[in-house]
Amino acid sequence: MTQSLWATIPSLFPSAPNMECRQTHDFVSNPFLESSAERHPTLANRVRPVISGNGVVDGYIKMKMIHIDGDNASPAEPKLGTFRFRRQGTVVSPDDGGPFGAGIPLLPPNFSTGMKLDRTDEKLWSFHLVAYCPGRMLLSDNYWCKEVVAIAVKDDCARHALLAFATAYVLDYEPTEEMRKRANHHYRTAVQLLDQALNREETYTVGQDDGVVVAMILMLSSDIVNWESRRPKGKEPLWREGSRAARLILDRADPGYRYWKPQNVQSSAARIGNANWIASIEICAQPVTPLSEENTKTLFLWLLGGSKVDAHKIQGVTGVCPKLLHIFSQITHLAALLKKDPKSIVVPDAASRIQDRLANFWQWSDASPGHPSIGALMESCVLDKDGKVSDSVRVTELSAHSWVPAAEMYLHMRVFRKPRSHPHVLRSLKVLIQCVKRLPCTGKLFTSQSPFFPVFLMAVASYREEDREVARQWFEVVLGGAQCRSSVPPVWTAIQKLWHWLDKELKEQPYDEEQPVGDRQAWWEYMVEELVKESGVLSLV
Q1: Nearest to residue 197, comparing CAs of 39, 38, 40, 32?
Q2: What keywords appear on the UniProt entry (predicted)?
Q3: pLDDT-derived band of residue 110, with 50, 70 and 90 as boundaries?
Q4: Separation between Cα atoms, residue 290 and residue 525, nearest integer Å
Q5: Sorting pLDDT into bands at 50, 70 and 90, what band is 89?
Q6: Which of 182, 224, 331, 449 has its CA 20 to 30 A from that of 321?
Q7: What's the rounded Cα separation, in Å, for the pair 323 and 122?
């Protein structure tokens, strides 16, 4: 199957990169220079979360807050000053007077050796470890707690970027002028150090890019969650410029240059995490941006490094395996090729082959060998009284599998140009809804592994009220119970506008199965045009 598809459109597949190509690039420009002066110019425009009376924050951030008033601890209040935060009953704020890092799991006893952090920075560092990291993933290979932290301990640029990122969250709970200035200081310092690193040749050598890419990931992630202060919707988002710049660095420092075949490539855990996160940011943005062959022909050569089994392993940093991410990029590339040549008979053939590969798509993780089919996965689920799975293994499996019907829908709607009412779209939508309805939207099992991107595609494909209600409930529960900032609010606003446009403005043409694919109505492209006009380019991670 793979050989046949490769013969049809070779550009769909990565290959070991050529060493000569690696030496043709200039230094990568620093996309963050423009924002370095005042990343947080004011506190006035921040949309701060409402904290419950017990101080529990249990969404993408996991902590219990205690408001400090002199020597007395009181429940969290809407206006917070200095605060402590707990994780699993352990107070880890430096205000306790105990050893820095006490109670924080996954860290060696001497992890802070060599770092010069004052009392407030220690608090910010602890916030990242204790509040941010537990909300990232359920799998034990927590990239944000292991690889990112280990790099930030050694790399000044990554450390300042981490502290700036943590402060961007803490400003919601401690909205003081001192904290705002500290956030700007760390961000400005990180940008300056990044600029120096990007102008050093050694940054682009194999194995030397981890610190720079981690710093860029932290800075662009800050732009994603601080959506109130993003650039105007008519301009390219900073997070997108940042992810593209990071992708160029990953291209330059690809360890694949050392190997004849991509399946023989060996990468560090840090590079695997960096590669999957950057790829997910880019790939998940492509469905909501206008088609361009120039922007889709780079199919993330480094994403599928390693064996076939490696490519099907669920990565906690994204909640899905690299192979499925890569298939999404292939689908977008096919849509771009069809736009360029509507008469192509090769594109529909390649799309049909991808459709076949998505049937009974297999994924596995360190916690589970996976299931041979969606039916087997569904049968393995034990549901609680609310109809939700209640163990981390099933949450991981369902979250990852939800990307499969999402990919099928995306293929049908954007490449085959089928309407939302087509039986093929509805069949995949039904499976996706089954997965989403079984997944918790809040609590200890809700993390960034949750299938945000598939939920967005589910919302787009839904035109019946009962289907839209599933999407509506997901967004309302996540927004109501998260009590922390995320990229979800602007996406939910965009979806509601989009539903109105799809219902009132989109003039769908009758679908004819016999009509050549390139002659069918490219309604997805009309939708993207409307989405970008009204909401800008959305971040779906």
Answers
A1: 32
A2: DNA-binding, Nucleus, Transcription, Transcription regulation, Zinc
A3: very low
A4: 7
A5: very low
A6: 224
A7: 38
Smallest Cα–Cα separation from 118: which of 97, 94, 151? 94
CA 96, chain centre distance (Å): 34
DSSP output for 263-321: GG----HHHHHHHHHHHHHHHHHGGGS---HHHHS---TTTT-S-HHHHTBPBTTTTB-
Q: Report which DSSP code applies to 79.
A: S
Which residues sit opposite 74 in a β-bridge? 67
- Per the CB < 8 A criterion, the answer to whether 80 and 67 are in contact is yes
Q: Which two tokens stand for residue 150?
A: 């280990």
Query: What would the pLDDT profile of 430-441 be if each residue is shown by its tens digit?
Result: 999 999 999 999
How large is the average pLDDT for residues 156-161? Answer: 98
The answer, yes or no, to whether residue 352 has pLDDT greater than 80, is yes
d(CA 515, CA 424): 17
Euclidean distance between CA atoms 117 and 102, whole angstroms: 16
Residue pLDDT, tens place only, 3-16: 566 666 766 765 55
Asked whether the beta carbons of 214 and 148 are under 8 A apart, the reply is yes
Give the model confidence (pLDDT) of 144-154 as tens digits.
999 999 999 99
Q: How far apart are CA 214 and CA 165, in angstroms?
A: 12
**SS3 category, 150:** helix
Write b or e for each residue in 481-513: b if 16 or more Cβ atoms lie within 10 A of its Cβ, otherwise e. Answer: bbbbbbbbbbbbebbeebbeebeeeeeeeeeee
Tokens of 11: 């550009």
Tokens 């539903």 identify what position?
A: 499
SS3 342: coil
Q: What is the DSSP letter of 412?
A: I
* Token pair of 383 as six digits: 């549901």
φ, ψ dihedrals at 486, nearest 5°: -165, 180
Collapsing DSSP to helix, strand or coil, 131 comes out as helix
Instruction: Round to whole Å and give the CA distance between 141 and 271.
Output: 13
Which residues lie across from 57 on neighbouring strands? 63
Structure tokens given for 436? 């989403």
Residue type for position 106: L
Residue 377: how many CA atoms within 13 Å on its side-chain side? 29
Q: With beta carbons less than 8 A apart as the criterion, state whether 162 and 148 touch.
A: yes
Q: What percent of the chain is helix, strand and coil (3-state, nearest 5)? A: 55, 5, 40
Q: What is the pLDDT of residues 301-329, one digit of tens each?
A: 889 888 889 999 999 999 999 999 999 99
Q: What is the mean pLDDT of the chain?
A: 87
Contact 258, 276 (CB under 8 A): no
- At residue 101, the 3 state secondary structure works out as coil
Domain ranges of the chain: 2-27+254-535, 33-216
Task: Characterise 443 by phi-psi region: left (phi > 0), alpha (psi -120 to 50), beta (else).
Answer: left
SS (H, E, C) 181-194: HHHHHHHHHHHHHH
The owner of tokens 């990071």 is: 246
